[in-house]
Amino acid sequence: MSTRYLSGSAVALVTPFNEDRTVDTEALRKLVQFHIEAGTDIIIPCGTTGESPTLTGQEQSEIIRTVKEEAGGKIMVAAGAGTNATNEAVELAVNAEKAGAAAILSVAPYYNKPSQEGIYQHYRHIAEAVSIPVIIYNVPGRTGCNVAASTILKLARNFKNIAAVKEATENMSQIAELLEDRPEHFSVLTGEDSLILPFMAMGGDGVISVAANQIPDRVKQLVDALASGDIETARSINRTCRKLFRLNFIESNPVPVKYALARMGMVKEIYRLPLVPLASENKAILDSELQALGLI
To answer: Does residue 287 fall inside a structural domain?
Structure first.
């Protein structure tokens, strides 16, 4: 396993809701226990998979406090704390630290499409506002802009608490540049479950995973096998999980994974608009794979 502070199998946690769309605190606590038992290394509430755009600042803080309390020091609690207005992203980061997060995951400014200098300044302000580690979240498919490797590396060198990147791209050239040129303290994590195997074979430190919501034990086993150099075991686990990795994006995340967790009896199948339930034909496809994996 990597000796870097942020490494291993991290889950991008869903946010369970009640019928009235309030946060289902009871289900949230049960999810934390599920991950403790499965050996997940880091739990990250309030990210994109947690429907962060629909959460209020107060809800974000309450969710982090609840997860932190339930974790009881048995699992690292990081937290999503990003948005596309820098002053608001700073406020979310500060509040996440106050609520007890050990690190924050901050998405690149979406929709604005800033220059690389604008992205650098965005993260500079966040890094200077908090004392805990900051994970840059690069997900061009959702944000409309790529955080260049040169920008990530400049931030990592200039700010000691810029501690990691969640690289949710298939740009293996950019990933290779990050892995080859990063400073010693800096972790490179994939945000693509389907790329865990090649990513870690290149020297990556782990994953911030969607599928870990459903199969945390298997994602943990996959990451650990790769960290120890056991490629054959990793290939076997990856073959078993590969279809689920893909089906979790049959519609926009987190709709499929939340549906799966509802079928597994762990959360209610409730979303906040503009997300709506999975189409019936896609439910049937996902049900088939959940049955094949023994999850329902």
So the answer is: no
